[in-house]
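tl;dr need the bound structure. longer version: we got a ligand (magnesium ion) that a collaborator sent over and nobodys looked at where it sits. i said id run it. heres the input, straight from their email, havent touched it
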Amino acid sequence: MTLMNDTTILPPLIDIRNATVVRGDSRVLHNLSLRIDDGQHVAIVGPNGSGKSTLIKLITRQLYPLAGKDQNPVVEIFGRDRWDVFELRSMLGILSNDMHQDFTADPDLDGLEVVISGFFASKGVPQYQRVSQEMTEAAQRAVELVQARHLAGKRLAEMSTGEARRILIARALVSNPRALMLDEPTAGLDLASRRRFLHSVRQISRRQKTIILVTHHVEEIIPEINRVILIKDGAVFDDGDKESILTNKRFSALFDEPIEVRKSSGGYYSAEIELLAGDRISDLD
Ligand SMILES: Nc1ncnc2c1ncn2[C@@H]1O[C@H](COP(=O)(O)OP(=O)(O)O)[C@@H](O)[C@H]1O
Ligand SMILES: [Mg+2]
């Protein structure tokens, strides 16, 4: 529970208990339990295939937990276990690389239309929906917040990856969500776009929106994030304060490789893996 001005008690943003998720023929989350309070920025880190995107999809109700006589799962978001998925998704601004691929594959959508579609949790504005003046104004404000006003009239399919990603973050923000769920949001961005993107995320994290950032890159854990959750083989491997989790020991165990984690300047961290030939690369990918 989070205490707000002595009187209001907010339920946790996310409260998952004993969730097992099956995809295809295999169990990809195993009896996972996790609680994230409203206002608590977190990073979720883990190897490829460990179940991070599955966890995000469980939260956004694109996937459901296995229920049965031996299973008693709970997935409560903002204290509720039943949701109109469109209402839920507009309260959780969502951005992922999957979504980026999906949106840019549509040749017709322009920037502003994509941003407005965040109100309807849809791809583009559904024909039966009316777009109000307030929605258009909110979309213009969101586009300005990510410095993308010049992209409002441009087709998404014709934008650079960095430009399209900025439009998609404006879309995630347009409905004034309580939280932002970012699933590897910098995938495919060059260094300058990545830096700019993370700068926007830092600004947003200070506007009373909870940031949930899935990343492989330790250096993307912005200083505003204090809690790090490690996911391995479909379960929570470790969870705690950034200081106690971002260590050589925990990271080497997480990735089954010797990894050196360093604290760098300004509240950031970095990680390096030692290659057999003595080469060093500065990323975990
Ligand atoms: N659509 C799918 N059908 C079957 N298995 C899937 C599907 N999507 C993901 N998986 C499997 O689920 C596991 C977890 O995937 P995912 O949650 O995407 O991992 P991560 O995001 O950590 O890389 C992987 O083993 C992956 O192969
Ligand atoms: Mg993923």
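gonna send this back to them w/ a short note. The mean pLDDT is 91.
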